[in-house]
């Protein structure tokens, strides 16, 4: 059988087979799902953390320096995600994806965003200035959304991963395309479920500013420049 015939056969199988779905009690791993039409559903909050301006970083600086920027940012983001109960589901170049479940998933994810801003502002950027004679400083964006998720395993044997189908995965990623002048962006659905300590500071100041996401059906979103001390 040639490649075209093999692909046509597999496509027909995927479209014709029934799905087996079950409600998830934890964030699944690849081994928890079959390569066929097998899926887990869950209510989850998705976080994407993404470096801003990575193309210019790679084009204008030595590869060793760019690699150090990637490594320090992703290392700090990953450690903070795990400390807040998030599960890292993917690394994609200069960004990281994580999923949170449970009763406090929105507060934990939003606090992660503020802590990543702290790490960049108070730890990584000062370290860059101390080590190198450069004006370069990291700018980054974290996006967070929550929704139902449909998780399936995709790819081929020996080269596969999970695909996260649902609004939260899509919108959290798209939020990282907004202005990095505000490092943390969350949807209205996430904001509505935040603990009060993540909405208002101890001295009564609002920590998030409401905006209209014009390109996404005028959805209600919130942005913040605040950080949360680690």
Provide keyphrases for this structure.
230 residues, Alpha-Beta Plaits, 9-stranded mixed beta sheet, globular
What does this structure look like?
By secondary structure, this protein is of the alpha+beta class. The protein has a single domain, classed as Nucleotide cyclase, GGDEF domain (Alpha-Beta Plaits), CATH 3.30.70. It is 36% helix and 30% strand. The protein contains six helices and nine strands, in the order αββααββαββαβαββ. Strands 1, 2, 3, 4, 5, 6, 7, 8 and 9 form a nine-stranded mixed beta sheet that branches. A hairpin with a 5-residue loop joins β8 and β9 (219-224). α3 runs antiparallel to α4. The longest helix has 27 residues, at 105-131. The protein is globular and about 60 Å long. The N and C termini lie far apart (58 Å). 34% of the residues are buried. The model has no long low-confidence stretch (mean pLDDT 95).
CATH topology: Alpha-Beta Plaits
**Outline:** globular
Instruction: Report the biggest beta sheet as strand number plus sense, adding barrel if it closes.
Output: 9 strands, mixed
* Tally of individual domains: 1
What's the name of the CATH homologous superfamily?
Answer: Nucleotide cyclase, GGDEF domain
Instruction: Supply the helix-strand structural class.
Output: alpha+beta
Strand content: 25-35%
Q: Mean pLDDT, nearest integer?
A: 95
Q: What's a quick, concise take on this entry?
A:
The chain has about 230 residues and is an alpha+beta fold. The chain has helices at about 5-15, 55-60, 65-85, 105-130, 165-175, 190; strands spanning about 20-25, 40-50, 85-90, 95-100, 140-155, 160-165, 185, 210-215, 220-225. Strands 1, 2, 3, 4, 5, 6, 7, 8 and 9 form a nine-stranded mixed sheet that branches.
